[in-house]
Design a protein that fits this description.
The chain has seven helices and twelve strands. With 341 residues, it is of the alpha+beta class. Strands 1, 2, 3, 4, 7, 8, 9, 10, 11 and 12 form a ten-stranded mixed beta sheet that branches. Strands 5-6 form a two-stranded antiparallel ribbon. The longest helix has 32 residues, at 309-340.
């Protein structure tokens, strides 16, 4: 079994742990001594990787293509290895109008296991988060098999690809009832002279930062989840979507994380001060050997605020099952709309 990766974690990435972007240069979060931690300057006691010159630039930020490849590789490894070999299978559920059944899975990653993550001795080194030992990570997953057909109750691969990979965050808002905003903070330019970035088998790559905002039942405050979103085709008939928490509270281009929404929001709920939560997910879609579509998703989250983790853990399995039905319903509605025009 592969070791747990240091990027596919619920602890938020800091701005200096991201590849360079012009909008990040003035907002890199400073440490208490006024300096940004640079793994290339680490001492022997820091146990950092000796090959950081291949992965980090002179400022200690990860090189763009190396960072993207490491995120996608760790996400694929989590789905193919960690989930398959260490998650417990739970019950089968239905998610109308989807005709496919949905298998739930779960795993608790303990604080002791997080202590064993190679935070510094990884291709993209990170400082161990200060809060990593407090509670661990509660992961839930689902797996479903769908007929590869453009008809009611299911969808073909192209429809899944459009709904989940293309413009992922905007589409997620459209099919998820409790999301009231998906605010795009910034996007990396991954084209060079009009040519798309290709990394090994990864193509049609996008990397963005969004703030995904959820309404919660009264009297709970809305939640905003700042996310680094990386999407890519992993082959002709497969793709992956990765969302990782990121701390953008010092970034002027943020909207909810820095409270800019309280003055500039265009609706009442968009002007409310949200609680900033943490959410990580991996969604992988591929054509299986029997030509059905296998949809696998794994997630961990912390809505924070006054919601205790035991309460959150009760609600997550049902929520991720419902998402399958929400997606199939949205695809069906879009299909009917396209047919009518």
């Amino acid at each position: 079994m592969a070791a747990l990766g240091n990027l596919i974690r619920l602890s938020a990435l800091q701005l200096h742990e991201l590849p360079h972007h012009t909008k990040l240069d003035g907002a890199i979060k400073q440490s208490s001594d006024g300096k940004v931690y640079n793994p290339r300057n680490a001492t022997d006691n820091d146990s950092s990787d000796d090959n950081t010159s291949d992965t980090l630039d002179q400022d200690g930020c990860p090189k763009l293509t190396v960072f993207i490849k490491e995120v996608l590789d760790q996400a694929k490894e989590f789905i193919d290895d960690t989930l398959s070999s260490t998650f417990r299978e739970e019950s089968l559920k239905t998610s109308p109008p989807a005709t496919a059944q949905v298998r739930l899975l779960s795993r608790d990653i303990t604080s002791a296991q997080l202590d064993g993550v190679p935070w510094l001795r990884s291709r993209i080194p990170r400082q161990p988060p200060a809060d990593k030992s407090k509670s661990g990570e509660a992961w839930f997953a689902r797996r479903s098999r769908h007929a590869n057909r453009s008809q009611e109750g299911t969808a073909d691969f192209g429809e899944f690809d459009y709904g989940l990979r293309e413009d992922h965050s905007e589409h997620e808002q459209q099919y998820t009832p409790d999301i009231f905003d998906s605010f795009k903070v910034l996007e990396w330019d991954l084209e060079h002279d009009g040519e798309e970035l290709l990394i090994d088998d990864y193509s049609q790559i996008k990397m963005t930062i969004y703030e995904i905002c959820h309404r919660l039942p009264f009297p709970l405050s809305p939640r905003a989840f700042p996310e680094l979103v990386v999407t890519a085709k992993t082959g002709p008939l497969s793709f992956i979507v990765v969302q990782i928490p990121v701390n953008i509270s010092s970034l002027p281009e943020a909207f909810y994380s820095n409270a800019r929404n309280s003055k500039e929001g265009d609706t009442e709920i968009k002007r409310k001060r949200p609680v900033l939560g943490a959410y990580i997910s991996i969604e992988r879609c591929r054509i299986a050997g029997d030509q059905s579509i296998e949809l696998t998703m794994a997630t961990a989250s912390d809505a924070k605020g006054s919601l205790p983790m035991w309460t959150q853990k009760l609600g997550v399995p049902g929520a991720i099952v419902k998402d399958v039905g929400f997606l199939i319903k949205w695809i069906s509605q879009r299909r009917r709309h396209l047919s009518a025009t």
